Amino acid sequence: MTDSLKIEIRPVTHPDVPAISALAREIWQATYPGIITQEQIDFMLEQRYGHERLYDDLEDADKWLDQAFLNDRRVGFAFSEIRKGEFKLDKLYIHPDVQRRGVGGQLIEHVAARARKLGYPCVILAVNKRNTAAIGSYRKYGFVVRESIVDDIGHGFVMDDYVMEKKL
Ligand SMILES: CC(C)(COP(=O)(O)OP(=O)(O)OC[C@H]1O[C@@H](n2cnc3c(N)ncnc32)[C@H](O)[C@@H]1OP(=O)(O)O)[C@@H](O)C(=O)NCCC(=O)NCCS
Questions:
Q1: Average pLDDT of 11-25?
Q2: In angstroms, what CA-CA distances link 72 with 9, 67, 78, 90?
Q3: For residue range 85-105, what is the model confidence (pLDDT) as tens digits?
Q4: 140 CA → ligand 1 middle, Å
Q5: Which residues pair with 80 in a beta bridge?
Q6: 136 lines ligand 1 (CB under 6 A)
Q7: How many angstroms separate the CA atoms of 94 and 3, rounded?
Q8: What share of residues in the chain are helix, strand, coil (percent, to 5)?
Q9: Does residue 103 line the site of ligand 1, with CB under 6 A?
Q10: Domain count along the chain
């Protein structure tokens, strides 16, 4: 059966924060067990998706929070930001029910268009080296590995990532 897909991308606003935080938890729990420990998942969710943190992000002029709706259901989000002079896709998460239907690709294009408009030569991101599905999708959308990093994020946790870049 083919169903018609209506994908819409809208900015995250203050009233959306609890729903984005809950969606992040749902997607992280479907993604990261087996890649990082449950303790690290809980630590990073609190650090990055706590309500106060998201309200702060919304006030930051160098950050953009976009959410995607598929047939009017909130199914994912992409956060982008200017960090150390580069344009970074900082978070990209699509609900497992609707992965591989093009929503991630549209969010990547949305973020890339913003970076292009602001005059940046590329978009960068960091992805866990063991997150092979995500790495595959980034390759599909034109990202290549630029470097390998191990980032100490405190409390005994590290992020073992590839930095990837997509030229614009
Ligand atoms: C990675 C992710 C953002 C891609 O978004 P998406 O909406 O599923 O991607 P699209 O439908 O636009 O593109 C799909 C492509 O991604 C890759 N891909 C996505 N999920 C995959 C999986 N489970 N296994 C293998 N490849 C996968 C494939 O290249 C696929 O292309 P194909 O369907 O033609 O083979 C999404 O799958 C996701 O949220 N994953 C879990 C969270 C995550 O790992 N986020 C990235 C953190 S850095």
A1: 98
A2: 10, 11, 17, 24
A3: 999 999 999 999 999 999 999
A4: 9
A5: 64, 89
A6: yes
A7: 18
A8: 40, 40, 25
A9: yes
A10: 1
